[in-house]
Amino acid sequence: MRVRPRLWIVPVLTVLVAVAAALPAFSRPGSGAADRAGAVAPAKAGDARRPVARDVVLAVHGGAGTALRRETTDPRKEKAYRDGLADALKAGRRVLRDGGDSVAAVEAAVRVLEDNELFNAGRGAVFTEDAGHELDASIMRGADLAAGAVAGVRSVRNPVSAARLVMEKTRHVMLAGEGADDFAARNGLPTVTQDYYWTQRRWDELVKAKHPGKTPQATKRHQADEEITGTVGAVAVDRDRDLAAATSTGGMTNKMTGRVGDSPVVGAGTYAKNGTVAASATGHGEVFIRGAATATIAHLIEFGGRDVASAAYEVVVGRLPRLGGTGGVIALDHEGALAAPHSSEGMVYGYLTEDGEIVTRLFPDESSPAG
Ligand code: ASP
Known about the structure:
Blueprint lengths: L8 H19 L5 H4 L19 E10 L9 H23 L4 H14 L19 E7 L4 E8 L5 H11 L4 E3 H10 L13 H11 L6 H5 L10 E6 L5 E7 L20 E4 L3 E7 L1 H6 L2 H12 L3 H12 L7 E6 L5 E2 L6 E8 L4 E4 L10
Parallel strand pairs: 3-4
Antiparallel strand pairs: 1-5, 1-11, 2-3, 2-6, 5-6, 7-8, 8-9, 9-10, 11-12
Helix pairs in contact: 3-4, 4-5, 5-6, 10-11
């Protein structure tokens, strides 16, 4: 007897195979494509899904990376970080006390950090692979979504001020390279030569990046904290409840000449939209760009009904690491709730409360959530 081929088995098997292939995506959190694109990492007890402080009017960060350790951090270094963050907050506090708006406050705070060689922005910026300095910065106003940015500038002393000028004096959002340097100079911003940005510490980091095996003596001295990359940012809310955010950086050590990170990209490194969030990011820029990091935080709040802390946590801890990068954000809502989640081991930041108190946080054990 001739056996009739059972052709119906082909589509049935196809469906079975497809279902079996899809199963892990549903059964194992974090493993499937759907999950990589968007689900939330499990909550830890007492965790970063809650605000780290309330009644905040201004916050600044000084980069994310390997945590500074209480036990190994030289007290002078600790003081320098705390003073650097506090000086920036004081500059912003002066602006807000004088009736200035949130845009002026974040600009003032970031300028102070750019002038401080401890941080990777302005003076103290990291080196490109060609031993040069190319700086990125952006600023955004939450009231009307106005934004300005500069990328790859080489002679502006304070890139954040150039970004603000782009926002206020041009019909564009971002200027890059020579055009941006010329624009800033024409508008009266102080210019510098490349050696202004130079520091021994960043030079040693470049040497180390190029010759990973050979660590010069000088580099060893900085090893305890060199992984705090030092990008800077600020977020603020003023008495009109208007939000603003700004970010400034030298980028990543040994980056290709011409490389632009997330810091000047609106929606990636910086975002501010009234009623949602003012956010400034630090970390692996490519991943923050691909994950549209700060805009996604705003969208989760606006369209997903999330609060600032859970939205920021979901993006920074839940989503971005799956794209292959770590970092952190400071995220402030119009009611003064501040979130500071990071997937990197550490992030240095500080904040100013409504009643004028300044708090700085360097070590991981200082980052307990506020009630
Ligand atoms: N996000 C910055 C960049 O990619 C670097 C950093 O924050 O450390 O340029």
